[in-house]
Structures are given as structure tokens and as C-alpha cells.
Design brief:
The chain is built from 18 helices and 21 strands. With 517 residues, the chain is an alpha/beta fold. Strands 5-4-8-1-10-13-2-14 form an eight-stranded mixed β-sheet, with helices on both faces. Strands 16-17-18-19 form a four-stranded antiparallel β-sheet. A three-stranded mixed β-sheet has the order 6-7-9. Strand 18 and strand 19 form a beta hairpin.
């Protein structure tokens, strides 16, 4: 009893003289994580050697860390990709291969990345889009979020949503899956992504004062359609210099591809009115300019967040990750948007920066988005759950010539593709009965020459066939410790409501708010 009294007295004295501040110091000795992700961003960035795109904030981050030049998503569609990297599993393991599927309806017992940080005493906070989010119709809501991943969430709503009726679009009042764009009035801070950045800065300020360890996941909504950004970002680009790549990809080219591959670069002709672009080169240039302008706007918001991180001193013990959920075609292969197994859709930017990560390094080692989860676990000293099948990238941090895998795997519908350091092989159909593609990046980075029937590459093709079959088999194995694994259809979503429009009692739109109002 006497010893308990002494302990209580000591505790009172420590509290009185501020000795309890040591607890905060101890917490801050652990690494925090700032996870930054763009929506529908390809590798058209200055740091990835694009000659036109202006991206100073992301480029600076790359100069301070390790840039992965050969990183790929596991499914080139928002919902499946995000479910995959947040769980560290392939899409065949999450059972999510379409949008609008709630994570817990397919893998209810999974421990997500943010959930694992919560289990270890971190504050897990989401701002904006991390899991699937119908963009722009779900802006301001939690959409298909997973509540078990976070302690706290913030759902911004900005001027881009409020003034949605002003947006140019190829199909009236359709924005989320249709090419749409607007050079907007107003300031950065009024846009949804500007609000995302402001909210992230406020969270960093709080964490710098309370000493709480954090996993802060910041999801930008751009450059996903609609391509909306303040006018000043459009003024940074010369529209006439935009290159539209329809030449050389006509019927003769399509005949060199397996039928599913040809369909993948032509599905949007029906759904988005893109045939109009092929007869209107100036319109195509305007839309491509809008994508680049929106990318630069998003980059500026990333810059605001990183500046705040440094101002608070949190950069000294925070790992920063920047990435995107999948790539994006801007007329390459005659296609716009995503959902192909070409490099344009599978490849994503991936940058790690922070204490212990050497600055200014690059690697061509093939890596996957599911590798982010176990990498962050190792960097923060947290044990990785057994179900995570991704691989930690820490060997590459120590030696940028090292590899943790020989290829990166991406799935789309009935096709699978792997990218090695040099080659890409794509298999269509369960047994390859729908055809193969083979590309040699030493000679054809644009993936326009299918070598699958070239006898000079037969030995390489045979070897890669074995490699991709091995990868597919392993990506379908139910991971240890996963728990329940269920099949689930997408939920049916309601149609988008553009603010200012009016509808009758049956849900039919009866009034369109005019763009000039």
C-alpha cells in the first residue's frame, strides 16, 4: 500500500513539473505517415521526364526521396485498385473487380492499412478520396468508404461541385465517366482539392502540437474528370502544342491485337462520344490541355501540404508517399481514360520520401501498389498482418538496383499482364485462348508493336508465358489469416444530381440550371 502511495506521489510531481511531456516525445520517436494520392493521374509529370507537364511540388518531393519508374496498379479502375492497395492483396483476393463494392461485403475480416495503424496507437485520418468514390457525384459524402479504417474522416465539398452545371462535357450532365472540363473562376482554396489541402494542413498543425502519431491519408479528386481547375492553370499551357496520337492506330493496328485488347481501347467510343474527338482535333487538344492544367492545380495543393509538413517540423519523423490509383490514356492507342492493360493505364507514379530514405534516387525495379502496405509497416516498425501478400520495398531503399520481384501484375476483366524491367506480356482468356501480347520496351515504349507472333521472340514469349501463369495462380490463392472471403455484386447507385437542377417526383430532370447563371 505504501509503495502505491509513493508511485502516485511521483506521478503527481512529474505531472506538476511537466515531466509527462516525455510521453509525447516518445510517441514522436515513431515514424508518422503522410499518404498522398491523386485520382486518375498517369506518369505525365516533370519528375517522370514529361516535356510539358508543370509539377514542381511532386518533382521536388521526388528529388528528396526515391522515385519508382516501374510501378503498377493491380486493376486499372478506381474501386478495385484502391481496395487492393489498402488491403495489400490482389483483386482476385479482395473479390472486388468493379466499382461501388463495399470492402466488408467481400472480405469482412480484413485488416486494412489504416486499421493496422489504429491498432498500434496511431490516429488514422482520411481527407477526401481513398476508397472508391463516385467522382464528382459523391463529393461531400463518404461514398464507398470503410469506417473501420479511420478514426476520423473529412469529406470536402468545393466550388467545382457547387458550379457543376458550368462544366463542359461530351454528354449532357454526365461528368464522372465522360470527358468533361472547365477553366474555373475563383481561387485554389475554393475548389474541393483546395479544401482537401487546407484540411490536411490543419490536421498537421494539430498533430504537431499534441504529439499524436498519425497515418494521414489525403485523397485528391483531380485530375479525375471533370478536369476542373482555376483559369490560371490553363494559362500555363499552350493548347496548340498538345499532341493527339490517333495516327497509326487504325483498323490495321487493331488487327494486330487480340480481340479483348482491341475492345479495351475502343469501348469508350460508344460510351463517351469520343468519335467526335477524332473528327475534331482542336477539341481533343482542349481536353488534353485541361487534364494537364488540372494536374498542375493538384500539384499545387500537394505543395501546400508539404510546405506545412516542413513548417511544423513533422517532416523530421514523417514518411511521405505520393501515388495514384491507376494510369490514364490521353489518346494513346486511340483511347481516352483507363481500363486497358497497356502501360498508359497500368503504370502509376510512386514516390517515397522521409527520414532514412536517400534523396534523388530512381529505380526501374518492377513494383506493385500492394507493396505500399508492407513497406510502411516495416518503415514504422509495425508487424504486417499475415494476409498481406505485397512485398516490402525496403531492400530497394538500401540499394536502388535491387529488386523484390521480377514482374508487376495487373488484371482487367479476363486479361492479365505482367511488366518486367524490359518486357510486357498480356494474356487474354483463362488459358490464353483469346490471345497474347508481347512488347519489348527497349525498342517500343509505346507498346504499338505486338511481338507475340514474331518468331525472333518465341523463346522469350514461352518463358514469359510460364512467368505470367505462375503469377496468376499465386494471385488467386486465399491469403493466410484473411478470414471470410465472399462474392459480392456492386450496389446500385443513384444518378448524379447537379446542384441547381430540378426533378419531378419520378426522378426525371425537368430543369437544367444554365451555365451562364
Amino acid at each position: 500500500m505504501k509503495s502505491i502511495k509513493i508511485i502516485l506521489q511521483l506521478f503527481f510531481i512529474m505531472t506538476l513539473f511537466g515531466c509527462n511531456k516525455k510521453v509525447i516525445v516518445d510517441k514522436n520517436e515513431k515514424m508518422n505517415v503522410l499518404f498522398l494520392i491523386a485520382d486518375d493521374l498517369n506518369c505525365d509529370l516533370g519528375s517522370y521526364n514529361h516535356p510539358q507537364v508543370i509539377s514542381p511540388s511532386i518533382d521536388k518531393l521526388a528529388s528528396q526521396g526515391l522515385l519508382f519508374e516501374n510501378a503498377h496498379n493491380q486493376y486499372p479502375l478506381c474501386g478495385p485498385s484502391r481496395a487492393s492497395f489498402m488491403t495489400g492483396m490482389y483483386s482476385d483476393q479482395t473479390k472486388i473487380t468493379r466499382n461501388n463494392v463495399l470492402l466488408r461485403t467481400t472480405v469482412p475480416d480484413v485488416i486494412t492499412m489504416g486499421q493496422r495503424f489504429r491498432q498500434q496507437g496511431y490516429r488514422s485520418v482520411r481527407i477526401g478520396k481513398i476508397y472508391h468514390y463516385d467522382n464528382p457525384s459523391s463529393i461531400g459524402t463518404s461514398s464507398a468508404d470503410d469506417i473501420y479504417t479511420w478514426d476520423y474522416t473529412i469529406n470536402p465539398w468545393g466550388r467545382d461541385k457547387e458550379e457543376e452545371y458550368k462544366i463542359n462535357t461530351l454528354k449532357e450532365r454526365q461528368y464522372g465517366g465522360v470527358l468533361s472540363w472547365l477553366a474555373a473562376d475563383g481561387t485554389d482554396e475554393e475548389q474541393t482539392d483546395g479544401i482537401v489541402a487546407t484540411e490536411a494542413m490543419e490536421q498537421l498543425e494539430k498533430f504537431s502540437k499534441n504529439g499524436q502519431n498519425f497515418f494521414l491519408a489525403v485523397g485528391m479528386y483531380r485530375p479525375h474528370v471533370p478536369f476542373v481547375a482555376p483559369k490560371k492553370y490553363f494559362n500555363m499551357y499552350d493548347r496548340d502544342s498538345m499532341e493527339i496520337l490517333y495516327s497509326g492506330v487504325g483498323e490495321e493496328y487493331l488487327n494486330t491485337l487480340p480481340k479483348p485488347a482491341a475492345k479495351s481501347v475502343r469501348w469508350s467510343d460508344r460510351n463517351q462520344g469520343l468519335l467526335a474527338l477524332k473528327s475534331n482535333n482542336e477539341l481533343a487538344k482542349e481536353i488534353k490541355e485541361a487534364y494537364f492544367a488540372t494536374t498542375t492545380f493538384m500539384d499545387a495543393q500537394i505543395g501546400r501540404i508539404l510546405k506545412k509538413l516542413k513548417q511544423t517540423g513533422l517532416d523530421k519523423n514523417t514518411i511521405v508517399v505520393f501515388t495514384s490509383d491507376h494510369g490514364y490514356h490521353l489518346s494513346e492507342h486511340g483511347h481516352w481514360q483507363k481500363q486497358t492493360l497497356f502501360e498508359n493505364a497500368t503504370r502509376i507514379p510512386l514516390i517515397f520520401s522521409g527520414p532514412g530514405i536517400e534523396s534523388g534516387k530512381r529505380t526501374n525495379s518492377p513494383v506493385e501498389m500492394i507493396d505500399i502496405y508492407p513497406t510502411l509497416m516495416e518503415l514504422t516498425g509495425i508487424e504486417t498482418p499475415d494476409h498481406v501478400v505485397g512485398k516490402s520495398l525496403s531492400p530497394i531503399f538500401k540499394n536502388n538496383s535491387a529488386s523484390v520481384r521480377s514482374s508487376a501484375l495487373t488484371q482487367w476483366k479476363n486479361g492479365y499482364s505482367i511488366k518486367t524491367e524490359r518486357y510486357r506480356i498480356t494474356k487474354w482468356g483463362e488459358n490464353g485462348e483469346l490471345g497474347y501480347e508481347l512488347y519489348d520496351h527497349n525498342n517500343d515504349k509505346e507498346e504499338l508493336i505486338n511481338l507475340a507472333n514474331n518468331p525472333n521472340y518465341s523463346t522469350i514469349l514461352d518463358s514469359l508465358k510460364k512467368a505470367i501463369d505462375f503469377r496468376i495462380v499465386n494471385a488467386r490463392v486465399k491469403p493466410d489469416g484473411l478470414g471470410r472471403q465472399l462474392e459480392q455484386e456492386s450496389y446500385k447507385k443513384a444518378p448524379n444530381i447537379t446542384p441547381g437542377d430540378l426533378f419531378d417526383k419520378s426522378g426525371k430532370r425537368v430543369y437544367f440550371k444554365p451555365a451562364n447563371e
